[in-house]
């Protein structure tokens, strides 16, 4: 029976090539986009090199000062002074990494301009973010205290600045008219890793901006490494207690808010999706699922339409099958199986397409050092979604068709 | 019940004696087609008994209700009023699933325009009724091959219907109708699309089926010569039985 269904399904697919193309294109294109998007989200949101400790880290990316009367507010990263005074001193985190947002600086090699993204860090940054050192080592806390102009550079920067040389430790690199002595070279990180990406890492003490300046807002973020995820509530409570005592430093505002949150939530504070106060992640997930559902709905509706239009075309076959003993349910089964064959074919094409697209993204210059992979979970859910919408788009037309009177079906030819 | 008159009989059987077993019984069959504005009476109170092993032909002008009556006999269409029993089974009480199984076991159909599935090979087309039974692929293959041998088409098994002539297509359709060894074959103008030589060939096969296997056959036809070869002729006019 199944072999017969398979034969007829393939024959039908071959018969109307344009319809088949539209159906397969709809399924495979939608799934490809979903797989690529989820691969990207998965890569950006989950723990990857060098932020392998992301699952047991809390992030402070933003301070918020609010005016109750005017509903006005000001959001900004923190100053080094703020993080050093209020966050580094917390008792519950195992370590606190403090680093600035990366900022572009210019450098010149053989009269050619080279843009180097520079990041200031403290010493614990190198413990919390686990870089692979290709050579050398990070600068020490003593070197930071001394304000030494030392730097860790990325592998890409080593290549573009020094060329193809075996070792650069001890050599000097100039950025923003300052000479830094290279103490180590790390494997490069894609720009999507906001906390860990930079071309040049230098001690915060060499910053031209006074790191001792007592203001709340600045250009720094902190990563609080917990001993385990279970410590999150404790750390958050301790930080909340500290924050509750801090007053805004701008007279226009009367409320000061800051939270230590897991990675994804910490970036949603200012987004239109995120409720600035709470419950950001579930909303993001909720909207994500709605988006995926609507996205999947398009090819489903398309398939239903195409299937219905195919009904009349095959009405003689339906009539004959019914006349020779097929019940309505048997015919529904046949059409659903045919549709699932079509959807599975679309899924295989989608997987191949996704693989090709991810390879192009990985090997292209779109985002350097980004390595996207087809996530198995994503693949599993894609297959599941495919089967579900194969069923959905098959059942309704099949049900309509199965109600057709044999005589009507035979006459329609 | 309107008495049925037998017109001519070439093959002599004991069909009309009182001991003959009734295979198809139609009682006060009415069929009305309704649209928003018009009501058309397609079948007007027809009662008819067809005996087991009988070869009956139905004739009449176009639109007189011949095919409608045949479809009602074949359980492909429901009467507006009246009862259809086949082999003593009142078919009005059967649900979709049981009706499908009943059709599969008892009935075989031959259509004027063959209604073969062009996407399937001849052998797969003939196997079709067996798909809806508990039979293995091997059994299906064997029975379908035998059926094709009976109609003289065993050399065309791997062909697609589009590669066959009209007569060959109709022979495939006959093979499909007999593969499940049904007790009744309903043929709606089986020679209507064929030239006279081909038509005679098809008629011979049907006659053989009736004589050799005792299959009850009801055939709708426009051809007086073909009808003459059957046991009994029923004439319809404007939905009513006139002879």
TrEMBL record, chain A:
The keyword Lipid metabolism does not apply. GO terms for cellular component: plasma membrane. The keyword Cell membrane applies. It comes from Segetibacter aerophilus. It is found in: Cell membrane. This is ABC transporter permease. Its main location: membrane. The chain crosses the membrane at residues 21-41, 286-308, 329-358, 378-399. One of its GO terms (molecular function) is transmembrane transporter activity. It is a multi-pass membrane protein. Keywords: Cell membrane, Membrane, Transmembrane, Transmembrane helix. Residues 20-238 form the MacB-like periplasmic core domain. Residues 290-405 form the ABC3 transporter permease C-terminal domain.
TrEMBL record, chain B:
Transmembrane segments: none annotated. GO terms for cellular component: membrane protein complex. CDD domains: ABC_MJ0796_LolCDE_FtsE (cd03255). Residues 24-242 form the ABC transporter domain. GO terms for molecular function: ATP binding; ATP hydrolysis activity; transmembrane transporter activity. Keywords: ATP-binding, Nucleotide-binding, Translocase, Transport. It holds the Pfam family ABC_tran. The keyword Transport applies. Belongs to the ABC transporter superfamily. Macrolide exporter (TC 3.A.1.122) family. PANTHER family: ABC TRANSPORTER ATP-BINDING PROTEIN MG467-RELATED, LIPOPROTEIN-RELEASING SYSTEM ATP-BINDING PROTEIN LOLD. This is ABC transporter ATP-binding protein. It comes from Segetibacter aerophilus. The lineage of its organism: Bacteria, Pseudomonadati, Bacteroidota, Chitinophagia, Chitinophagales.
């Amino acid at each position: 029976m199944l072999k017969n269904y398979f034969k007829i399904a393939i024959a039908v697919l071959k018969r109307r090539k344009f319809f088949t193309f539209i159906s397969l294109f709809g399924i495979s294109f939608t799934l490809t986009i979903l797989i690529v998007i989820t691969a990207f989200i998965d890569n950006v949101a989950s723990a990857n090199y060098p932020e392998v400790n992301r699952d047991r880290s809390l992030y402070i990316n933003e301070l918020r000062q609010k005016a109750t009367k005017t509903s006005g507010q000001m959001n900004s990263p923190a100053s080094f002074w703020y993080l050093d005074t209020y966050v580094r001193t917390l008792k519950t985190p195992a370590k606190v990494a403090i680093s600035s947002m990366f900022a572009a600086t210019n450098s010149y090699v053989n009269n050619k301009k080279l843009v180097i993204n520079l990041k200031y860090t403290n010493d614990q940054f190198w413990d919390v973010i686990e870089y692979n050192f290709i050579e050398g080592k990070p600068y020490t806390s003593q070197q930071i205290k001394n304000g030494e102009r030392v730097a860790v550079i990325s592998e890409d920067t080593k290549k573009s600045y020094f060329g193809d040389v075996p070792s650069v430790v001890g050599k000097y690199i100039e950025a923003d008219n300052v000479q830094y002595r290279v103490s180590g070279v790390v494997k490069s990180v894609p720009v999507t890793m906001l906390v860990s990406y930079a071309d040049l890492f230098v001690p915060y003490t060499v910053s031209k901006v006074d790191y001792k300046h007592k203001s709340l807002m600045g250009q720094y973020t902190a990563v609080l490494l917990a001993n385990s995820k279970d410590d999150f509530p404790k750390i958050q409570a301790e930080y909340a207690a500290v924050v509750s005592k801090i007053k805004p430093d701008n007279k226009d505002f009367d409320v000061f808010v800051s939270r230590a949150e897991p990675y994804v939530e910490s970036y949603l504070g200012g987004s239109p999706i995120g409720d600035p106060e709470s419950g950001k992640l579930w909303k993001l997930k909720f909207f994500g699922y709605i988006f995926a559902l609507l996205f999947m709905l398009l090819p489903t509706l398309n398939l239903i339409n195409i299937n219905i239009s195919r009904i009349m075309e095959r009405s003689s076959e339906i009539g004959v099958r019914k006349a020779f003993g097929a019940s309505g349910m048997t015919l529904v089964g046949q059409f659903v199986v045919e549709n699932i064959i079509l959807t599975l074919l679309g899924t295989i094409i989608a997987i191949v397409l996704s693989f090709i697209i991810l390879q192009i993204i990985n090997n292209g210059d779109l985002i350097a050092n980004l390595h996207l992979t087809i996530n198995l979970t994503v693949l599993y859910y894609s297959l599941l979604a495919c089967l579900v919408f194969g069923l959905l788009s098959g059942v309704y037309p099949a049900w309509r068709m199965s109600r057709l009177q044999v005589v009507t079906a035979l006459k329609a030819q | 019940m309107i008495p049925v008159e037998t017109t001519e009989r070439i093959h002599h059987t004991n069909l009309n004696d009182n001991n003959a077993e009734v295979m198809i019984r139609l009682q006060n069959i009415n069929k009305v087609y309704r649209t928003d504005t018009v009501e058309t009476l397609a079948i007007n109170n027809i009662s008819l008994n067809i005996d087991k092993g009988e070869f009956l032909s139905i004739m009449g002008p176009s639109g007189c209700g011949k095919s409608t009556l045949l479809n009602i006999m074949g359980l492909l269409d429901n009467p507006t009023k009246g009862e259809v029993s086949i082999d003593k089974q009142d078919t009005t009480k059967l649900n979709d699933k049981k009706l499908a199984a009943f059709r599969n076991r008892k009935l075989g159909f031959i259509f004027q325009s063959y209604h073969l599935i062009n996407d399937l090979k001849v052998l797969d087309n003939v196997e079709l009724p067996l798909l809806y039974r508990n039979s293995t692929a091997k059994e299906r293959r064997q029975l379908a091959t035998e059926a094709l041998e009976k109609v003289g088409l065993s050399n065309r098994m791997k062909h697609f219907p589009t590669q066959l002539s009209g007569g060959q297509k109709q022979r495939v359709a006959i093979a499909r109708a007999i593969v499940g060894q049904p007790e009744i074959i309903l043929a709606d103008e089986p020679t209507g699309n064929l030239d006279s030589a081909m038509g005679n060939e098809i008629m011979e096969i049907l006659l053989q089926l009736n004589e050799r296997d005792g299959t009850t056959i009801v055939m709708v036809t426009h051809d007086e010569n073909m009808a003459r070869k059957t046991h009994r002729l029923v004439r319809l006019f404007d939905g009513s039985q006139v002879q």
